[in-house]
Amino acid sequence: MIRQLGRPTFFATFSAVETRLFDRLRVLYRMEHNQKFSDDDLENLTWQEKSQLIQKDPVTCARHFDYRVQVLFRRVILSELQPLGKVTDYFFRVEYQQRGSPHTHCLLWVEDAPEADNDSDREVAEFVDKYLTCHRHQEGELKEISSLHEHKHSKLCKKGEKHVCRFGFPLPPMPRTMMLRPLTQTEEEEEYPRIGKSFKAIKRVESTETRRECILESGH
After folding, report:
1. 43-61 in b/e burial notation, b at 16+ Cβ within 10 A?
2. In the chain, which end has fewer C-beta atoms inside a 10 angstrom radius, N or C?
3. Residue limits of the Helitron helicase-like domain (predicted)?
């Protein structure tokens, strides 16, 4: 598709917070226990009880996930609302994590979207800022939505004997959306030592802040 359509505009990943999908849990509980459950009843289930319901019926969970993805595209992404612009084409594939939970990786092509190297950095940055944000909402409905996009280090980040995240997170903060390009050979020869020194200093500060957050969260 890339050969015919060119570079995609967006890469997106969609996954389901399965223990919060009450419509799915309600169906699973009725199939397992032949009993209807209210939202309050589902809210009172422990995380372990919800997980057991999900694990016992992976087929229903996979079909439900596929249905939600189809509805997401039909009623939101491809709708007249155009939350990501006018999507002219798309491609997605479903993958399964080791525990069996599905997630979808998508490529989206948007009409008249600026392209890096063909349009100015300012145009590209303005387009990105129109649809994407790193802002953390601290109150209201968006606070809960923002919380679903926050990630913490796990055992996967530090496989083997590594003591730092193998994915390089956290990334250095930036004051605004910027286009990053590889250094030229001349820039690399002249600027790399200075840039490398600055980068190490930034990572030290990030590491200190990360440890501080972990201590505060653990209460120790």
Report:
1. eebeeeebeebbeebeeeb
2. C
3. 1-108
Q: How far is CA 48 from CA 33, 54, 154, in A?
A: 16, 10, 20
Entry pTM: 0.75
Which among 15, 124, 105 is positioned nearest to 61, based on CA atoms? 15
Class of residue 123 by CB neighbours under 10 A (exposed 0-12, middle 13-18, buried 19+): middle
In this structure, of 58-67, 68-77, 194-203, the range with the lowest mean pLDDT score is 194-203
The letter for the amino acid at 217 is E
Contacts 24+ apart (CB under 8 A), 174-180: 176/125, 177/125, 177/128, 177/129, 178/121, 178/125, 179/116, 179/121, 179/124, 179/125
Adjacent-strand bridge partners of 105: 13, 93
